[in-house]
Amino acid sequence: MRPIWLIEANVDGLPSEALQAEIRRQGMPVHVVKHLPSLPTPRDIAGAESLPMDACVVFRGTLRLMRHIQATRRWRPGGWCTFPNLACSTYYTHYGPFLLNRDYALLPVAEALRLTDSLFARYAGGGRLFLRPDAVDKTFTGALADKASFSRTLSEPAFDPTALVLVARPKEISYEWRLLVANGEVIAGSQYRAAGEFVNVAGCPGEVHAFAATVLQQVDWRPDALFVMDVCESENRLRLVELNSFSCSGHYLADLGTVVRRASELASLSW
User: Is the peptide bond before 77 cis (omega within 30 degrees of 0)?
Assistant: First the structure.
């Protein structure tokens, strides 16, 4: 069974024209879909109304629609995004020695606010520390924060005071790459940042692939059969920045032919 690909329409940061073209070139159907949560099933996902509830599907789009698909459809695999596995509190326990943020604290929002002074005393550099949500579906973007922005960010009334946040010491990052991993093997990648600025460069240096291979050889645990691994160079060493969902992440200039072929093979096997 070859999969049907679903691409969510108009998602900022996830351009899809080249991906759609490659899917069609490889002979598979692709539907552009839109989430309409106010409508009943199957009209809640416009563009996919005719798909059987148990179809072989690969989704690419937002985390919000990915959650909805997992809750309302039996599509297999549907996509690759096991939300609990992509929380820092889960995958840090497996990949700790390789992390950029090896020295960190994870604590509830309310406790982070209460302990602001001690957290800054322990982790700040130049008056700022790194702050991000624990969950992959971030309520705010991870960034450096001074005391004012730290308090302002965590004091939003919409935030669950029990939700976990991660605090770590700031690090200098020279370059960042995104690698796509299938069944424990790096299948494609590209550079997406240099000296803090966005770049889009196909491929990765051999030493980046070698670092990722070492990590994957030494750590058996995987968040999904197919996932994204972000790697950086910091202080002249390669480090793991974070893990992300295949279905809800930009692939930048990764080789789309390989990405589509391997993802489709894994989808067919799971179905």
Answer: yes
The residue among 83, 31, 36, 77 whose CA lies nearest residue 58 is 77
> Token pair of 137, please?
């579906």
Distances in Å between the alpha carbon of 187 and those of 8, 85, 107, 181, 241? 23, 21, 35, 6, 18
Range of the domain at 61: 4-80
Sign, CA torsion 87/90/94/97? positive
Does residue 127 belong to any structural domain of this protein? yes
**The CA-based dihedral angle spanning residues 239, 12, 140, 70, taken in that order and rounded to the nearest 10 degrees:** -90
Interval 57-104: pLDDT, tens: 999 999 999 999 999 999 999 999 999 999 999 999 999 999 999 999
Residue 12 within a domain: yes
Full-model pTM: 0.94
Mean confidence (pLDDT) of the chain:
96
User: Residue 204, class by beta-carbon neighbours within 10 Å (0-12 exposed, 13-18 middle, 19+ buried)?
Assistant: buried
Q: Is residue 120 domain-resident?
A: yes
Residue 270 lies in a domain: no
Round to whole Å and give the CA distance between 218 and 33: 39
For the chain, the domain total comes to 3
Same domain (yes/no): 70, 106: no
pLDDT range class, residue 157, cuts 50, 70, 90: confident
pLDDT score of 238 more than 90: yes
Query: Can you tell me the distance from the alpha carbon of 200 to that of 96, in angstroms, rounded to the nearest whole number?
Result: 28
Separation between Cα atoms, residue 25 and residue 14, nearest integer Å? 20
